[in-house]
Structure formats: structure tokens, C-alpha cells
Amino acid sequence: MFASLHLATWIVSALTVFGVIFRPGRWPEWIFAVAGAALLVVSGLLPWGEALAGVAMGTDVYLFLAGMMLLAGTARREGLFDYLAAFAARSARGSPRRLFFLVYLIGTLVTVFLSNDATAVVLTPAVIAVARAAKVASPLPYLLVCAFVANAASFVLPISNPANLVVFGQDLPPLGEWLARFALPSLLAILATFWLLRWTQRAHLVGTTDTDIAIPRLSIGGRIAAVGLCAAVVVLLTASALGWELGPPTLAAGLLTALAVMIGERSNPLPLVREVSWDTLALVAGLFVIVRALEVSGLQALLVDALQGPLNASPQIGAFAAGTALAFGTNLTNNLPLGLLAGAFTTAADLPRQVMDAILVGIDIGPNLSVTGSLATILWLTALRREALDFGALAFLRLGLVVMPPALVLALLAVLFQPWG
Predict the structure, then answer these.
(1) pTM for this one?
(2) How many Cβ atoms from other residues are within 10 Å of residue 241's Cβ?
């Protein structure tokens, strides 16, 4: 009886993840996550109390996401990203390769300090507009930067990817320890992704770009948003250094920045409230319930019993294998649900630090293989389609097979063999 209930839980959970990734009927992802969570409760597979406990597990992540969306949305509405993209195009001085480098640099900074989802959502439209204004031979290389750097640079800091909070949970390392563990792997992943992506796009980086690009005037709100972003970065780095949870200060920074812009511009607050993607929060909450159901069903215990011993017996081999398996697995399940499951596993298991770090690297870099690998890449594709552009899943996979594995291997080797590890 219990075995059949557990099997039913696993089937509902698998179908939910399938719906989130492939969106049958083109319905939004959050509908499948919420429907799957509700089905588990209504069918009696998961008690109400456990479902609420699952939702509560994600409180810090919800606050972090809401704060980051407010920060990024405020900056986007005030034209800060359009300003940065236009400045990059003017600074390229007619060189497509220099423009590629500058877009990659801006994308890295946005990812590091505003999270990978911000790069996909707010930087992509700005890059599209500037690429058209610069009359580039093809906008493709610059748009691919927004997708690939969003994952490659997503573990420089704890705030660079919501998945970082999910994987480590309450055990999130403070900033100093985080940098000691992930600075070198991140640097190698960023550099490898840059060189491989530029090499694959070399045929498009030819000729010259238009240098007569108008840099938009930054409004009062834009300047306030820029100051607010810088202040938010300082606050979040301080909170991370002190080992605090990142959700509350992120939300506070987002609210204060939005409030300062509204006062400075004397604008209506409702458009800023709409900048928060409430359906994304519903998606994450539904997935937290799914993961809680898998924990209650005993899947977590089975994984701990099966894997904890081998991973501890041979940490280096286990770390490399775990990081590689999860990197490719993110493209089958999306890195958010897999990150949630990995986070539950790492919390319950007693694992070597190298294994923990390799798991995070796999979860963060792996999505550069396919368009279904991460929420950031899905959001990037959505941003392209809003501008009547597209990039096929097969074409992305072919490119990902060239770019992702070398970056992954270099980052994992750095995790295993860095001198201070």
C-alpha cells in the first residue's frame, strides 16, 4: 500500500516537471507546478501540513526573487540597461569583436550582481535594440551572450543565481568562504564560455558596426536606480559576508530603490508592482511542494542511503561524477526542480565539501547545454520571441555541446584541485 502511494507521488511529480519544461498547450509553467502540488494534496498523497511546510521552505527564495525583480525591473523601466547597451555599442568604435566583448562584460556584471534571470529578462531586449541600431551583420552573437553568460557567471556570488540559495539552503557559506571556494571555478567557466562562444560566432563578427549611436539621456529615475543598485550590491555583499539570509535584505533593497525612484519621478507605483513576476513565485512555491512530497515519500532517504557512502568513499571521483551527472540532468528536468531536489539531498546527507561544490557547479553551468536547462534560458527565449526573433532548440543544443562541456570540466577540476581547497 505504502509503496503504491510512493509510486503515485513520484508519477505526479514527474508529470509536473514534464509540464513545467515542455508546457503542453503552451500554458504557463506555473500552472503545471501549482496544479501538480494541488493534486498531491487533494489526492491525499501529501498532507496539508506537509504542503504548507514545503511552501514555507522557500520563504528566503521568494523574498530574494521578489527583491531582484524589483531592482531589475526598476532599472529597466528607467532605461538604465538601454543606456549601458548603447554606451557599449558606442565604445566598440565600429568593431564587432569589441562589441561582443563589451556585451559579455556587461552581461557578466549584471549576472553577478543582479542574478542570471535579470540578464535574460532585462538585458536581452536592450541588446536587441542596440544591435539593430548599430546595424551589426547579425544580432545572434550578442543575443547568445545574454543566454550563456547568465549561466556561466551564475555562481560568482551567492546572489548570482537563485539556485545557489536553493542548493545550499540554511548552509549557504558566507561571502569570504564562498569566494575561496568558487572564485577560480567561476573565472574559468566565464573565460571558457567567452572564448568558445566567440570562436563559434566568428563568422558573424565581421565588418564594422555603426558608430553613430545615440546614447539615451539617463533620467533622474535612471540615476536613482543606478545608485540604488550599487547600494543594494553593498548591502547584499555585507549580508552575505555576515552569513545572513539574503531574502529579506534583497527585498528591502528592491523596495527602497523602487520607492526612491517613485519619489524622484513622482510616478505611479502600480507599474513597478507589476515588475514582480508573481507567476514565477507561484512556480517556485509549487516546486517546493513537489520536492517536499518527494522527501515525505522516502525518495530523499533512498538517495542518501544509496549515494552518501560512495560519495564519501571517493570524494574526488564522486564530486566529478555528481557535477557531471547533474549538469546534464538539468537539461532533462530544468535546473530549478533538480536544484531543489539536490538541495534537499545535500541537506540530509553528510557530504564532503568538494561534492557539495561540484553539485552547485553542475546545477549552474549545465543549463548552457539546452534551452530547457534553466529558467533564465527559457526567459531569454521568451524575450527573443517578443521581438519577433527565435533560436531553435536543436541549434542551441549543437552550440551548447561545444560550449558547455569544456567550461564544466574546467570548473569541476578547479573545485577538485584548487590549492586552497
Answers:
(1) 0.85
(2) 14
